[in-house]
Amino acid sequence: MADNIAFLYPGQGSQKVGMGADLYEAFPEARILFNKADKILGFSLKKLCFNGPETELNQDLNAQLAVYVNSCCLTDILKKHNILPQVAAGYSSGFYGAAYCAGCFDFSLGLKIVKIAGEALIAKCSVVNGAMAVIFGLSIEQLNDLCANKSDVAIAIINTPRQIIISGRLPSVEQIMEKAIGIGALDAYLLPAKCAYHSTFMLGAGRHFLKKSDGFSLNNPMIPLISYHTLTPVKNQQKLIKVMADQLSSTVRWVELIKMIKKQFPGTLLEVGPGAVICGTVRWIDRNLTILNTSSAKRLQNTVKIIKGLESS
Predict the structure, then answer these.
(1) pLDDT in tens, 251-280
(2) Residue-wise over 55-66: b if at least 16 C-beta within 10 A, else e?
(3) Which among 177, 179, 175, 170 is positioned nearest to 199, based on CA atoms?
């Protein structure tokens, strides 16, 4: 086992057509999980991941399921190579992949949890004229000041010190975007998601999730599993369900999380999932951190070689 490695799991937004196809071809672990997912879901997720169409893959629930399955495949492949983390954390819906890595549930139950959470969020989205927008170039303090007098818009995700996502009702989100540009923001634009994710408008989704997940048999985390909102490890299986529910309406404090992991678990970071969103944010947060990528079979194999080299040095 490689020492001092943190596994970081991406969430919705990291999906792209073709994801996982090379893993499916190269690794039996990927074939097992993709085939299992198709059977559980009742449709071919692997076909959607491998061939699209992009518009269907990008639908919120499909994207969350696809990223979860890809991340679990990579987790199992890394474990097969005896590469195990010291700590795990996830970005938004990436938390489910991190919880799988920490041994909190098996793949099948995790897939069910992702589906329940996604459906709960979609149900709330349908009754709120919501939106999310990225603001570039302003500090967290400046955006907090802009949102201070608005009860229906707030900071949802802190990607980097100067890339922040706001969430709320569409008219207020657009007003904050305009004000942000007015005080010096470099750019501001709406995200495709027509929903106020990670805001108090999603409190009902958390309550629905708690109701639907009642009675699930979960395990205590085998390694520290860090909440992206509380920035603390999930202590046990009883706390896990509540944390997953609470996080649906809570801010993703990603910058603070990365800094905390650097301080408490110094070492190499590993993005375990499709794309390179996590790598991009980490480099903007702290360029002295080392982060490796596993977004393709080739990059995964290269990362395995690097980690094995670190072990032997």
Answers:
(1) 999 999 999 999 999 999 999 999 999 999
(2) eebbbbbbbbbb
(3) 170
DSSP string of 240-263? HHHHHHHHTTS-B-HHHHHHHHHH
pLDDT in tens, 164-212: 999 999 999 999 999 999 999 999 999 988 899 999 999 999 999 999 9
- The answer to whether 250 and 205 have CB atoms below 8 angstroms apart is no
Average pLDDT over residues 83-106: 97
Q: Which residues are catalytic?
A: 92, 198
Give the domain-ending residue among 190, 216, 239. 190
| Domain assignment of residue 175, given as a range | 130-190
Q: Give domain status of residue 165, yes or no.
A: yes
Angle at which helices 203-212 and 107-125 cross, to 10°: 140
Residue 1 clears pLDDT 60, i.e. is over it: no
Same domain, 171 and 138: yes
Q: How many domains in the chain? A: 2
46-57 pLDDT per residue, tens: 999 999 999 999
Same domain, 97 and 246: yes
Which pTM was predicted?
A: 0.95
Place of tokens 């678990």: 265
Residues 94 and 182 in one domain: no
Shared domain for 118 and 239, answered yes or no, is yes
Same domain, 135 and 84: no
Cα gap 23→6, rounded to integer Å: 22
Count Cβ atoms within 10 A of the Cβ of residue 70 and give its class: 0-12 exposed, 13-18 middle, 19 or more buried. Answer: buried
Quick one: 126 exposed, middle or buried, by C-beta within 10 A (0-12, 13-18, 19+)?
exposed
**Residue 183 sits in a domain of what CATH number?**
3.30.70.250
